Amino acid sequence: MNAIVKNIPNSITCLNITAGSIAIIFALQGNSEIYGMAAYNWAYIFIGIAAVMDFLDGFAARLLHANSELGKELDSLCDAVSFGVAPAMVLFSTLERLGSCEWLRWGALLIPVFGVLRLAKFNIDTRQTTSFIGLPIPANAIFWIGYTALCNETQGYACEWWCVIPVLLLECWLMVSPVRLFSLKFKTWGWKGNQFRWLLIATAVVLPASMGTPGLMWLIIAYILYGAINRE
């Protein structure tokens, strides 16, 4: 196989970690205005870009038949930064900016710790080829985008310790839990067998459109509930 073609998926994966690293930089800028928008909003956008790259690298690898062990390991390393460290820094910065107690902010570091545990388990588990056992780390990152956006909007209960701690512990546990969740890999495009996939896609349109960025938190909650209902 042509060396350039073979490395296209890995190049896309590197764009993933680049976007995730930029997201960390913006997250640490708090609500400073950058190009007419709060820095934390830029962090949200670049985590989203990383998520798109994470989807495209797998798609490109399948399309070009360029799957490799290198690509698998590279993907996990990049995901640890973009969907583990980046959302942790977003949460840390949000709690700091909204005046939450200092010890609570450091709890955000549990996100990358459990994130890498999730990735390590995924890499050695042959059962997770068409579905997931535990919450995928990109979904975890999307949840924290929605949650911190809710904190920014309410500046109230969502950033209090009695709310953050149980949510943080539950999200971390979900990543390494035995909870089974479906993937968005379609074998066919019909409704039968894909009901919950199509429902999740519809939910992904409706919730953010109606609730704004906090809708992403409810999207991941809906995903977990759909996974609990799905018996396929």
Describe the structure.
- This protein has 232 residues and is mainly alpha-helical.
- The protein has one domain (3-229): Four Helix Bundle (Hemerythrin (Met), subunit A) (Up-down Bundle), CATH 1.20.120.
- Helices cover 71% and strands 4% of the residues.
- It contains 10 helices and 4 strands, in the order ααββααααβααβαα.
- Strands 1-2 form a two-stranded antiparallel ribbon. Strands 3-4 form a two-stranded antiparallel ribbon.
- A hairpin with a 2-residue loop joins strand 1 (33-34) and strand 2.
- The chain is globular.
- It starts with a helix and ends with a helix.
- The model has no long low-confidence stretch (mean pLDDT 92).
Topology:
Layout: H1 3-6, H2 8-27, E1 33-34, E2 37-38, H3 39-64, H4 69-97, H5 102-106, H6 110-124, E3 131-133, H7 137-154, H8 161-176, E4 180-182, H9 195-211, H10 215-229
Antiparallel strand pairs: 1-2, 3-4
